[in-house]
Amino acid sequence: MKEEIIIAGFGGQGVLSMGKILAYSAIMQDMEVTWMPSYGPEMRGGTANVSVILSDKKIGSPIVTKYDTAIILNQQSMDKFEQSVKPGGLLLYDPNGITRHPERTDITICRIDAIDVAAKVGNSKVYNMAVMGAYLKMKPLVDMVNVDKGLAKCIPARYSDLIALNKQAIEEGMNSVVTL
Hints:
Layout: E1 2-10, H1 15-28, E2 32-39, E3 47-55, E4 67-72, H2 75-81, E5 85-93, E6 108-111, H3 114-121, H4 127-138, H5 144-154, H6 163-176, E7 178-179
Parallel strand pairs: 1-4, 4-5, 5-6
Antiparallel strand pairs: 1-3, 2-3, 6-7
Helix pairs in contact: 1-4, 1-5, 3-4, 3-6, 4-6
């Protein structure tokens, strides 16, 4: 098993954090993992993406040009990465701010209204965990017990009170994903 993922959006949407939590969760499950972030110097508000590879075998290179899954959180990322999804792959996106929705017919396309999920949970900071929940519903490669460990590893101790809220957002995201 090998899963090559791109997560892309604006800085401040939790793109890099989502990738990091997913990577740590897979490590807790004894998978081989790469996590390679890319972001502009402006950070918050600029574009950001992270490439994550999860595998049960050694990973030869962290460089990926075609992905099994693209998680898209803004229009610039949709324009850049929609065509990079392998035929038969998954494109998961949040429609907020998207003006041109995905058009491919050779991939699975799913939508998560993550802003609505974060509002339901009561904290906009868990937006990225709603998206991650949608991904985990569509591709349950990492067990939730390991996601809990990944959250504990990645969330600073001073914010440990937010772990339960993040778990709730993941669950709500799992329940809110729509296949188009």
